[in-house]
Design a protein that fits this description.
This protein is mostly helical. Among the domains are: about 120 residues, Methane Monooxygenase Hydroxylase, Chain G, domain 1, CATH 1.20.58.190; about 80 residues, Up-down Bundle (Methane Monooxygenase Hydroxylase, Chain G, domain 1). Helix content is about 65%, strand content about 0%. It is built from ten helices and two strands, in the order ααααααββαααα. It has a two-stranded antiparallel ribbon with strand order 1-2. GO terms for molecular function: metal ion binding; sequence-specific DNA binding.
Length: about 290
């Protein structure tokens, strides 16, 4: 007991060695000193950066929502007779998404994009997915990252309506040019998500009696999967995570194509969509082994 009291008393005496007035000395710091002025400027800079980050997060959410709506619209092509009208409507929606991306480009003017990349990557991935889905429906091919970035170059002449927004920097640049480049990671993740939409497109097509689309999609998915296999574990962590989902989508489409090829004439049209209800336990076992 005496040792504990002694140690406690020692701590108390050590604490009392500092005069009371010295411990409160920090409250009397001169607010106009160079050090305080410097830290105030740091505070203002960090607050401005945080506000910009929050604005980019909100824009990214808008881009994600509008891109998803475009994808939902494009899925109607398999059952609608007016394919050209839906493609035209989807292009209008994508133009609206690009106007949101134009605002992102304005926010990032003069900034290092990689410092704010986390705030906008979700929206850019969804935009890549929507654009590549539309491009595949038109051409049955994969759009390149260069083609996507060419559509993300904006000038004030083409987007005069955006000049009226008070938060934009276009008021100081009447004839400026803004551009936003999709990074390779955004492009790869968007293409990986595209494979899931193509698998759903196959289900809708087979349900409507379209036998050709699954074979076209199967060949395309095989090429995409081969491309991702070349990347392997050397790519970003997010890409390797989505490789499993890509393999599942490819297996479902290939199994459906096999069933259609072997016994397609025997299956009634109203039951064609059931060929996609193939269990994936074998895929899970292969993933566990590898």
């Amino acid at each position: 007991m005496s040792n504990k009291e002694g140690s406690g008393g020692f701590r108390k005496r050590k604490h009392d060695n500092f005069p009371h007035n010295q411990r409160r000395e920090g409250k009397d710091v001169n607010s106009s000193s160079p050090v305080m002025l410097a830290f105030k400027s740091f505070q203002q800079e960090l607050d401005a950066r945080h506000d910009k980050y929050e604005r980019l997060v909100k824009l990214s959410r808008d881009i994600t929502v509008e891109s998803k709506r475009t994808i939902f619209l494009l899925h109607r092509i398999t059952s609608a007779p007016d394919m050209e009208d839906i493609l035209t409507e989807s292009e209008i929606k994508l133009d609206g998404v690009r106007q949101k991306i134009f605002q992102v480009a304005q926010e990032l003017s003069g900034e290092d994009m990689h410092q704010f990349h986390r705030a906008i990557t979700t929206g850019l991935q969804e935009y890549v997915e929507a654009v590549s889905f539309q491009h595949f429906i038109k051409t049955r091919s994969l759009i390149s990252m260069e083609e996507i970035n060419k559509q993300l170059i904006f000038t004030t002449e083409d987007s005069g309506k955006e000049n009226k927004t008070p938060s934009s920097d276009a008021q100081d640049k009447q004839f400026g040019t803004w551009r936003l480049k999709v990074t390779p990671v955004d492009y790869l993740l968007g293409v990986a998500d595209l494979t899931g939409e193509l698998m759903r497109m196959c289900i809708n097509s087979v349900g409507n009696g379209d036998i050709d689309t699954p074979f076209e999609v199967s060949q395309f998915l095989r090429q995409v999967y081969d491309g991702f296999s070349f990347i392997g574990n050397t790519g970003p962590y997010e890409v390797s995570k989505k490789l499993y989902t890509l393999k599942q989508s490819l297996a479902k489409v290939e199994n459906a194509c096999y069933a259609l090829k072997v016994r397609g004439s025997e299956i009634p049209k109203h039951m064609l969509a059931d060929v996609f209800s193939v269990k994936t336990e074998m895929i899970d076992q292969e993933e566990g082994i590898s």
